[in-house]
Amino acid sequence: MAFTLVRRKAVAAHERGSLPAGPLAAVLTVALLAALTAAVAWGSTSIPPGEVGSVVWRRLSGEAPRPGTDDLIVWQLRVPRALLAALVGAGLGVIGTAVQALVRNPLADPYLLGISNGASLGAVTAIVLGLGAGGALGLSGAAFVGALATFALVWAVARRGGGFAPLRLVLAGVAIGQFLSGFTSYLVLQAGDEQQTHSVLFWLMGSLSGATWDLLAVPAVAVPVALLWLQARARGLNALLMGDETAAGLGIDVTRLRRELFAVTSVLTGVLVAVSGAIAFVALMVPHVCRLVVGGDHRRLLPVSALFGALLLVVVDIVCRTAMDTQELPVGVVTSLLGAPALLYLLDRRLGGGS
Description:
Elements: H1 2-15, H2 21-41, H3 49-61, H4 69-103, H5 115-128, H6 136-158, H7 166-189, H8 194-204, H9 213-232, H10 234-241, H11 244-249, H12 254-276, H13 282-294, H14 298-322, H15 331-352
């Protein structure tokens, strides 16, 4: 009887105050398409949306591109960048949602597990030591190796002594992440010249300027696959939020699910940091906003978080490219300026409402 009451209360908490996810997802999809069009059309050289559509249609239909700069700007530069922004934003939204369920902490994000720090260290090492001669792909590879190495280290420390406790995982991630962050700062100081230092700092604050069609391949596969995998385990994610005993009573293998969640979120974090650098606050803020709108049921929360994260980062990237005439702003700077006040407002609203 007590178990049934706990389950009913948890379900009610998931449903309370939620809007229909279907219409909201449709609105977000339309808004995302509009933002992608604006991202390709706007910039130092503005291109009419009709011409953008014409260039994209000719490319997709296999027609020969028209001579001129519009095709180069639209197809080779801006379309890959806009798509990369959407993929990274969607991935960060999904990761944030999964990590918060993994550790049952609404303030959790990939930085809490140290994975972002490991990816950053790998990329900075490649830049400072001149190992990124392969260009953006070489830099991404170094970041991905750093993320996987950090994942293995955090996992080994968290599993030390047997068992799998969320608190031990968080403490291991925070400690190792701070150590790697300090080592990264040391490497930045060892950069050989001012231009190299600027490149490292710009990458650490997040950047989508290196987007190419080749760079899109891995995140274009990783983000949808991770979303589908997590969506298939939405029931388990809901159960984790009720507590381990309740989740186990519902037939969930809690230890196995947490292990799989940690592996998936770590790999996806490595992929995203490898192609975009360290972008703060998106993975932390997006689930909060979406949870207020659609509730805590992960069957609705995951796809809405992916769409909202994609929309948010596409809009942020437009601001980064167009806010200043002489230079481009790092993406992480804008997300921090937006994310910190938004998070404070959400926390004030949540605490003020007694939730």
